[in-house]
Amino acid sequence: MTLSVACRTAAPVAPDAVQVARTPAATEWEKQLDAIRFSPAGPAQQQGFVRIQQELEPAVQKDPANAHLHYLLGRVYYYLIRDAEAGREFDRALSLAPDVAEYHYLKAHYLRTAGDVRGAIAELTRTTELAPLTAKYHAVLGETLMSEDPDKARSALTQALAVEPDSALAAGHLGLLLLEQGKDAEALQWLARATPEEPRDPMTQYNIGQAFQNQGDHPRALAHFQSAAMAMPEDWRTLAKLVQEHAALKQFPERDAARARLLKLNDEGKVDSPFFVREQFQEGTEKVMVAEYFKLEGDWAVRYVFHMEPARPDGTSHEWRLSLGSYEFTNSARPPGSKERLFHFDAYESDNSHLTFAFFDGEPSYEDTRALAVAVLRGKVKPVSGTRFTRE
């Protein structure tokens, strides 16, 4: 996934928590920078960053020994994805003021973005040494350690919560760490303390939403997916999650609005898949995942595929599917003069044996197709034909 500015908006601690000289002008630049970095991504945000950059550059030239000006300029370059210049300014700030935790903290974010995880861990470790009572530093250290050393990650996150028991940032990452370790019950207790505002990272919000979706907690899942979507408005997978969760909550106007945005992204060439998962639901013992295809393409064109994975008493599963299709060979057999495309609703086993349950002149709605799928699953609809064939 392309790294967006939203992923770079590392939040420094409050200015009065850092013992460093600030001129009134620097304080004002910092205030403006904090306001811009969490504004909606787009041209206005970029223009704001560029304006501050153009004001800071001559200020740094005029006062090159001012560590905080170098730090602020480094932040601006970082948010503008000018990484080499950002790293240079962070290094200059630290050479002038090596014991300012905030400077190490932002340099750690820069290093992590550049792929230097070990360097980031070293910088974050230094922040916790310089400011041991700042929970955010421990929390971000724990987050960064998750992929490198889970035990140390848990220790850092636990320390963050010891310093600040209400830290949603630390709770969210601790919950995700425990989830990866298969400790679902404990994980969900911590994830419930995360909020749509914290952790700020949109992919972390997405992962928390996924955890709640898997547990069937759709209100919480939706809140976290909405947070992710605000920061990543053109991420089609997140939009698909909004479609799913609005459907689960029977919020159909909102579902349709999210789907319309997703279709627009596909029309603009911003979706790298021929389908998206439109809905997930449970029907009896069947776990149902519905794929909607954007286009009817090829000889075996389908619009919806309902994938089923029922649980068996012995713990195994048996996968099969229902689909709404409009195959070329079926349409070629239509009577002369037919204007509507012919659709058919079929069930397929893994060996491609199939049963046909219905034919439609023209494409039925999703609601009608879903209702038919549920009726088939409940055994209320009998097939009209059945065959076994091999696709070539």
Strand arrangement, largest sheet? Answer: 1-2-3-4-5-6-7
Structural class: alpha+beta
What does the average pLDDT come to?
90
* Assembly category: single chain
- Count helical runs: 16
**Overall radius of gyration:** 27 Å
What is the string of SSEs from the N terminus onward?
A: HHHHHHHHHHHHHHEEEEHEEHE
Poorly predicted spans: 1-6, 14-18, 388-392
Q: Ends: how far apart? A: 35 Å
Number of strands: 7
| Residues in β-strands, percent | 5-15%
3D architecture notes:
By secondary structure, the chain is of the alpha+beta class. The chain has 2 domains: 5-250, Tetratricopeptide repeat domain (Serine Threonine Protein Phosphatase 5, Tetratricopeptide repeat, Alpha Horseshoe); 278-388, no CATH class. Helix content is 53%, strand content 13%. The protein has 16 helices and 7 strands. The chain has helices spanning 24-37, 43-62, 67-79, 83-96, 101-113, 117-130, 135-145, 150-163, 168-180, 184-191, 202-214, 218-231, 236-248, 252-267, 328-331, 366-377; strands at residues 275-283, 286-293, 302-308, 320-325, 342-348, 353-361, 385-388. The protein has a 7-stranded antiparallel beta sheet with strand order 1-2-3-4-5-6-7. It is elongated and about 85 Å long. It starts with 23 loop residues before the first helix and ends with a strand.
Quick overview:
The chain is of the alpha+beta class and 392 residues long.
Which descriptors apply to this entry?
16 helices; disordered C terminus; elongated; 7 strands; Serine Threonine Protein Phosphatase 5, Tetratricopeptide repeat; 2 domains; 392 residues; alpha+beta; disordered N terminus
